[in-house]
Give the backbone structure.
Amino acid sequence: GSTSVREITRLERIGAHSHIRGLGLDDALEPRSGGSQGMVGQMAARRAVGVIFRMIKEGKIGGRAILIAGKPGTGKTAIAMGLAQELGEDTPFTTLSGSEVFSLEMSKTEALTQALRRSIGVRILEETEVIEGEVVEIMVDTLAGKGGSEKSGRLTLCTTEMETVYDLGSKMIDALTKEKVTAGDVITIDKASGRISKLGRSFSRSRDYDAMGAQTRFVQCPEGELQKRKEMVHTVSLHEIDVINSRQQGFLALFAGDTGEIKGEVRDQIDTKVADWREEGRATIVPGVLFIDEVHMLDMECFSFLNRALESDMAPVLVIATNRGIAKIRGTDYKSPHGIPLDLLDRLMIVSTTSYTTDETRKILSVRCEEEDVEMADDALELLTRIGMETSLRYVIHMIIAASLVAERRKCSQVEIEDIKRVYTLFVDVKRSTQYLMEYQSEFMFNELDNGGDIEEDSGSDEDDDDVHNSDDNEEKEVSKIDESEKSSMEEG
């Protein structure tokens, strides 16, 4: 019979910013051109964030706030994601949306406090005594007695310089069996807890078997003495320490996500303990980054809380982003730049983003095509770029995968101009949608232009008939000012 070989590929979700691998900067913090690490354009903003990245890495910055401000679709979130990728896994990076604060089942200040403490890491140093060596031989004896069988055994470990035999109890034998330790494995035994870790297989035993599994790791036989003092480093966030100490099932609450509100007394005790560890040299603080997107959604209470939180000794770097201009501060009638109070704006280092040029838009689209694994013809990419310049970058990015599916339906591996045109007619952008609404607004429910007079009539009191007549007259005057084309379309509706 015939056999078919099918290639198995790893399934990965492609997100809006999954192509971002970093800020695309060289060693001198100058932005590289040509879509380095997925970043295109925004040279000044990337250079500014690069300086902030270097300061965070060197631990010279804390309690600072940076505002990334710009029009929609100019790469504000992409720059923040690039900063997160550059910092790596060791530096805590917490992402929060402004509206999330109000939707959680806890007070606004508690939600912000938890987010701030998630962004502060504590690197705990711990010295432990370990036995590390290559297993030469394991001997297990089972003695049958009245109370049942008892296990005892001997473990022979060696390094390049020495060899020692250890007597084993039943618990250690069970641990060795559980880890599937055999002769030739390199293991470490923690003397304090008795925990056994298998590091890999010794190179000297690499020829024992003709075939090995893909997961088999080969390591060198340890040198020096068997017993060593090792320095272990654990990095945890302050929020994780809070959760573990705040309730009886605290450790499980970390996985369940149901942390609830944490008392201030618990946090004060933890801060005191961490301060003691820092003085003893057992712990170091890793100030991370808290990124709040759509920050204009926060209200006055949240802004005043952030103002106070930034003055704390253990404050992370706050990066906030907004696309608003002069806007009302939520919950007030006051207007201010970006919808942020002026006292907080004074504290911010503001980085602005600019609109993308045609060449930058083309490069972004080619990077996205590569990320989404879509083959696109040059003329189709050119058309997509033109559409992007006239509509918006987000609209054309969404068109890529849709055009790919249309091309697939034609049994074509490459996206052509006709596929782009087809998708352009199927999905309308904001401008065309608005134009359609203007033409056919009388057919839609609750449209402002048609029912404005009715609303005014309902709101007026029934007793003042003269007022009602006056409002009707005013309404007729307003309607007469409308263009003839709109008037005729309203009458048709």
